[in-house]
Amino acid sequence: MLTAQQKKRENIAEYIIYMWQVEDLIRANHCDMNRIRATIIPQYKDLSPELQLAVIDWWDNLVEMMRLEHKEEKGHLQILVNTVNEMNTLHHQLLASPKYLSYQMQFNAVIPLIKELELKTQPRPENDIELMLMAIYSSFLLKLKGRPVTNETQQALTVFGRFLALLSKFYKDDQAGKIDWEDEV
């Protein structure tokens, strides 16, 4: 909960990837709050009793959301899907704006890597932002399983990570009202 809140404030792409990991942890515990209390909650040992209860409530709410949305086996919570879609909407606003040529140039450098990854990804994600997030998360899962990631793939992931960090900065600024869209030509 604490990590999620911090990531959501600081880097929305990291937040999405973190929350996908949380979803998988919940699935690994069979969406069973008793198992989560036994396996995950003990890791939050140095918290005040109030914060400890807040952490338990947070996990419990996520478990319930996953059940209600029928995401016990696969898929992502609607709130996360919506956040990725918000990132994608902002991405397209930045691409369409004459003010953000640097952003557009950085995205143009990423396009060949995206196109190459699209050919290897089934089913195809909804948008390029989701595709890059999925690539980073998938490589994380491969590393957890002890499977190698090629140098070429690692280089592409580094490029994706840098681009998503840039988009995350714009997202944070947009959420804070620091982007002035009114001066568009």
Description:
It is built from 8 helices and no strands. The chain has 185 residues and is an all-alpha fold. It folds into 2 domains: 67 residues, no CATH class; 98 residues, no CATH class.
Task: Indicate the topology.
Layout lengths: L1 H9 L1 H17 L4 H7 L9 H20 L9 H19 L4 H20 L7 H17 L6 H25 L10
Which structural class do you get from the secondary structure elements? mainly alpha
Form type: globular
Oligomer: single chain
| CA radius of gyration | 18 Å
Q: What percent strand? A: under 5%
Distinct helical segment count: 8
Summary of the model, kept short:
Helices cover 72% and strands 0% of the residues. With 185 residues, the protein is mainly alpha-helical. It is globular, with a radius of gyration of 18 Å.
Features:
mainly alpha, 185 residues, 2 domains
